[in-house]
Structures are given as C-alpha cells and as structure tokens.
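Field reference: sequence -> structure
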Amino acid sequence: MVRSICLTLAAIAVCAGFFIFVDLYLANEFEEFRGAVDTLYEKVEEENANSGDADAVRTMWSAKKSKLHMFIPHNDISYVDYRLNEAFSYIYTHDYPLALANLEIVKKMAENLPDNYRLKLENIL
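Structure field:
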C-alpha cells in the first residue's frame, strides 16, 4: 500500500516536471522566433527587407520546428510554415503590404501557440 502511494506520487512528480519543462521550452523557443519575426517585420515596414532576411527567419523556423513537432500538432506548425513562406514570396517580389499582413499573422501565432499548450486549467478542461 505504501509502495503504491509512493510510486503514484513519484509518477505525479515526474509528470509535473515534464509539463514544467515543456512549458519553459516552448516559451523559450517561441520567444526567440518571435524576436526574429519582429525584426523582419520592422525591416519590411521600412521597406528595406530583402529575401536574405526572410530566408534567415525561415531557416531559424526550420531548425526549431523539427524539435517542436514533439509538443505541437503538425497542423499548427504547417500553418506557420505556410504564412512564413507566403511572406517570403512577397518580400522577394517587394510587395511589402502583403508581406506585412502575413508577418502579422506569424507574429500572433508565435504569441498564441505556446499559450495553447501550457498546463492551464482552461487547456485541460
């Protein structure tokens, strides 16, 4: 009986530790990505962004998404990919208003995605 209680408490502690790790990891990864997107957004606003700037953000996202697939559904990651690639194409063609619109969506997703997978009561129920 005591052994069962101890093992149950140990399992709860391990799960809580894992959830805390995931929460901190997602916050850190998306904070870095959001910073890169913010910088690109500012360059696009000033209309001096080039495809190299956009490609650097895409490369950063590609490195991050390979690890994020363990914690975030593929559809959410694919949608960020889609909007980021669309913004890249508009930057490449110097269509800055449409690039800004797509980057605004990417920024919002980078803000909201980690919150969607945090250990919060509203996400559990």
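Note: The radius of gyration is 19 Å.
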